[in-house]
Every structure is written in structure tokens, then in C-alpha cells.
């Protein structure tokens, strides 16, 4: 069929394998794998249950994946993914990324070029480089961002989930960290002051305000309960 036609395919107990394709796609696979080359249309939907998803590159991609041996993607323009009881590995997202993940082996992404929204439960999310704003809601898992570029805003609400954030050397921003039964540690490039002062003694809830670098451009808000917050 012509590569720019739309493609809708459904398969049970078998695989779907395709090369490069320019048209819109709607793919559903149960008890099998989906393997594709370059999906360069702005409308691609993939649903896989009890199998593997392997896509070389894609333009705009929406994925739902449950169980199986995981999702592997090279480079994608924009991404929306809902994954349960599996693992996700992505080399890079050029634009925005929306990640929902429950249970399984976690999500690993090399870089995200746009805004990122994370909602994860009982699984970890790890990102190498983030060049957009971050909004995250995490429960019983972990969130680790190795390098957040200058001028980006961060908003995290974590419960029973560890938060580990690295910032670019030229990152300057204001921080607001609120912990309950959670620790907060940071390097010398961060200045933070506990509201009410350290002479208040022990309290399960602590609020910190301060600056990363010189302060000003970026806004970092973290609310954490029952785990740890680490800036590096």
C-alpha cells in the first residue's frame, strides 16, 4: 500500500512488523510484538498488551502498553505514553513528553527537549537532560533528572518517592521545598533556609526557601512526604 495512506491494524497472538510509514497509524497488538521503522506522521497510536514495542523513530506518538517485555523507542518528536507492568526506554524526545507509568521496570529517557509531565506509581522515572519545564506527581517510586537546563520551572509532588534533581551549571532559580518525614540535601551551589530557623528543633514537617545559583529565573517547587529530596 502507498506509504502515505492511513493504516489501521489489529493482531492477536502474533506480531506486526513494518518499515517506514508516512501515513497515520492505529495499531493494536495482543500477545505479540510491534516493530516499526520511522513513523513520521503526526498521528500515530499504538496499543500493545503482553508483548514488546520497538519503534526506531516517530513524529507524534501515543502509546498504551500493558505487560510484556517493554517499550523501546529511538527518537520521537512528541510523546504521550501510558505504561503498566512493563519498562520503557527512549533515546530522546525532541518536544513535549507526557509520561504515565504504573509498576514495572520504570522509564528511562536520554533527553527531553520540551515540557515534561510525569505521573508515576510504584516505578521509577529517570531522565538524562531536560530542556523544558517539569510537572511531576510521584507515588511509591522515584524521579531522577540528571541535568535540568537554565530557566526551567520544576513542580513536583512526591509521596513515598525519592526525588533526585541535577541542575545545569548556569541554572539560577528560586526554590521552595516542603518536606514531611523526608530529608533534603543539596550542594554548595544551593542556599536554603529552613522557615523558622534550625533552632526550632525536631519537626516532622520542614519548609525551605532559597536559591539555586544566583536565584531569579527558574522556579523550583518540591513537596515530598516519606522519602528524600536531593539536589546536585
What report would you give on this structure?
This protein is mainly beta. It has one domain (38-231). It has no helices and 20 strands. It has strands spanning 7-12, 16-17, 25-30, 34-39, 44-84, 87-93, 97-102, 106-112, 116-121, 124-130, 134-139, 142-148, 154-159, 162-167, 173-180, 183-185, 190-194, 205-212, 218-225, 228-231. It has a 20-stranded mixed beta sheet that branches.
Features:
20 strands, mainly beta, 232 residues, 20-stranded mixed beta sheet
Task: Lay out the secondary structure.
Layout: E1 7-12, E2 16-17, E3 25-30, E4 34-39, E5 44-84, E6 87-93, E7 97-102, E8 106-112, E9 116-121, E10 124-130, E11 134-139, E12 142-148, E13 154-159, E14 162-167, E15 173-180, E16 183-185, E17 190-194, E18 205-212, E19 218-225, E20 228-231
Parallel strand pairs: 1-3, 2-4, 3-5, 4-5, 5-6, 5-7, 6-8, 7-9, 8-10, 9-11, 10-12, 11-13, 12-14, 13-19, 14-20, 15-19, 16-20
Antiparallel strand pairs: 15-18, 17-18
Provide a quick synopsis of the model.
This protein has 232 residues and is mostly beta strands.
Amino acid at each position: 500500500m502507498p506509504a502515505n495512506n492511513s493504516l489501521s491494524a489489529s493482531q492477536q497472538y502474533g506480531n506486526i512488523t513494518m518499515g517506514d510509514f508516512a501515513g497515520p497509524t492505529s495499531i493494536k497488538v495482543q500477545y505479540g510484538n510491534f516493530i516499526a521503522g520511522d513513523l513520521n506522521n503526526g498521528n500515530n497510536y499504538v496499543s500493545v498488551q503482553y508483548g514488546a514495542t520497538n519503534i526506531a523513530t516517530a513524529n507524534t506518538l501515543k502509546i498504551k502498553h500493558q505487560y510484556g517485555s517493554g517499550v523501546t523507542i529511538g527518537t520521537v518528536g512528541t510523546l504521550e505514553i501510558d505504561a503498566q507492568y512493563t519498562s520503557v526506554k527512549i533515546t530522546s524526545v525532541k518536544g513535549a513528553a507526557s509520561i504515565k507509568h504504573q509498576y514495572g521496570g520504570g522509564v528511562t529517557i536520554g533527553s527531553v527537549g520540551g515540557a515534561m509531565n510525569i505521573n508515576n506509581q510504584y516505578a521509577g522515572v529517570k531522565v538524562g537532560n531536560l530542556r523544558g519545564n517539569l510537572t511531576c506527581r510521584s507515588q511509591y517510586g522515584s524521579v531522577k533528572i540528571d541535568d535540568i537546563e537554565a530557566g526551567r520551572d520544576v513542580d513536583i509532588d512526591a509521596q513515598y518517592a525519592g526525588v533526585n534533581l541535577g541542575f545545569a551549571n548556569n541554572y539560577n532559580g528560586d526554590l521552595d521545598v516542603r518536606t514531611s518525614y523526608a530529608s533534603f540535601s543539596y550542594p554548595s551551589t544551593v542556599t536554603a533556609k529552613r522557615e523558622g530557623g534550625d533552632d526550632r528543633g525536631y519537626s516532622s514537617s520542614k519548609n525551605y526557601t532559597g536559591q539555586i545559583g544566583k536565584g531569579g529565573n527558574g522556579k523550583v517547587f518540591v513537596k515530598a512526604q516519606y522519602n528524600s529530596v536531593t539536589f546536585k
